[in-house]
Amino acid sequence: MISDPADLTGPTALEGNADSSKRRVIAWGMWDWGAQPFNTVITTFVFSVYLTSSAFGATNFTSMALAVSTGVAGLFVALLAPVLGQNSDRSGKTVRNLKIQTWVLAVLSAALFFVQPEPAFLILGLVLLGAGSVISEIAGVNYNATIDQVATPRTVGRVSGFGWGMGYLGGILVLLLIFFLFIQPEVGPFGVTDDGALDIRVSMLVCGLWIALFTIPAFRVLRDRPRPLAPRVGVADSYRLVWRSIRGLWSTSRHTVYFLLASALFRDGLAGVFAFGAILAAGTFGLSAGEVIIFGAAANIVAGLATMAFGTLDDWIGPKKVILICLAALVTLGLLIFILHDGGKTVFWVLGLLLTVFVGPAQAASRSFLARLIPQGKSGEIFGLYATTGRVVSFLSPLAFGAFIALGAAITGQDNTQYWGILGIVLILAAGFAVMIPVREHGEHTMGQVGSS
């Protein structure tokens, strides 16, 4: 609970005993690298597409079933993230909890192998995918809370950007690995073919192994920090403490609350860029399925490298300026995609790759902005609130995307007005930009003060 103004004017979590040596930062970033296949391969490019294929039923039915399960998973994250984060803070066992959650995520990913291409296996696939989404998000809360072990106020932007960039690069590497080893060849290693969707299912085993293996370096450098023994708190009391923390934030650090609201908006817009990018690539600009995967690979590489590069800019000019620059660029590029939608594949490749330059840096700067604000001992809880606020508004981008497609059809009378959906994403990003403008930064965000610390 944050009940005393001193909680926010005293030392922040980043001013603890962080060791930001290159070896430790690289090892910390390996968790992003290792855990990313769940997002890139499973929820975005491969398994979700497989689960909504005709093998499991009519497209509308499977798509709606996936939407419902995703929504339910998001509700669980919104309800559990701040409470579980708070409990990690109270127990001082953030790293232990992260280990357990990572191993469970690896097992759930590998278990997707058992989802055979038959309607009877749809529910199993949805349950495993939904459970994995919840575990992935909660693990992300605990992972974010460990950034104070490897970053200082002077380096947090670079560290956050490095980790996020490592995630992009790791995700795309495993995607290309399984694509060229199992999915594209008629017969892959060990005789794997597409009979019974074995190529997709074996890819899930690879993802599980990847998660378990490549997150090990992070656990070799991260350590739980002993805390004074705290009394156990029940579920109801945990939610009361979370509510008291929110009220404490409102009274002592109102701009932290403003930032949580602003970041919820623009992070939903950033998610929309990737969520609907492949749809626009195929439906509006005519990219084939293979071309979409190649574009996705290129986009993730560009995003990863750009995010690492922008991390230095974050430490130099502050995360707020990085966020605003990125959002302004994304709004401009989104409008250009709408205006030039008749330009074909070349327009999408150029403007689409430029879009990816700014998505990752905005996400990483958002994490570093919040990391600089968090009082000591509150990392899990505040990052839990960060996850919750993002989930609460996660319906906005899909709703805006669909609404503008319908609006375009009504205005133009055209059969395919999918390109109007980009205006919905632009609207969410612009709203996040507007709400972010009045948010004040922590004093450590300015270069001069950091340099003099």
Q: What does this 3D model show about the protein?
A:
The protein is mainly alpha-helical. It has helices spanning 6-9, 22-35, 37-45, 47-51, 59-91, 94-111, 122-145, 156-183, 198-214, 216-221, 235-252, 254-283, 289-317, 319-339, 345-373, 379-392, 396-412, 421-436, 447-451. It contains 19 helices and no strands. Helix 3 (37-45) packs across helix 8. The protein is globular and about 55 Å long.
The overall average pLDDT, rounded, is: 82
What's the helical proportion of residues? over 70%
Specify the CATH architecture: Up-down Bundle
Number of domains: 1
Q: The biggest beta sheet, please?
A: none
What is the overall silhouette? globular
List keywords for this structure.
disordered N terminus; Growth Hormone, Chain: A; 19 helices; single chain; mainly alpha; disordered C terminus; globular; 453 residues
Question: Layout of helices and strands, plus pairs?
Answer:
Elements: H1 6-9, H2 22-35, H3 37-45, H4 47-51, H5 59-91, H6 94-111, H7 122-145, H8 156-183, H9 198-214, H10 216-221, H11 235-252, H12 254-283, H13 289-317, H14 319-339, H15 345-373, H16 379-392, H17 396-412, H18 421-436, H19 447-451
Helix pairs in contact: 2-8, 2-9, 3-8, 3-9, 5-7, 5-11, 5-16, 6-7, 6-9, 7-16, 8-9, 8-13, 8-15, 11-12, 12-15, 12-16, 12-17, 12-18, 13-14, 13-15, 14-15, 14-18, 17-18
Short synopsis of the structure:
The chain has 453 residues and is an all-alpha fold. It has helices at residues 6-9, 22-35, 37-45, 47-51, 59-91, 94-111, 122-145, 156-183, 198-214, 216-221, 235-252, 254-283, 289-317, 319-339, 345-373, 379-392, 396-412, 421-436, 447-451.
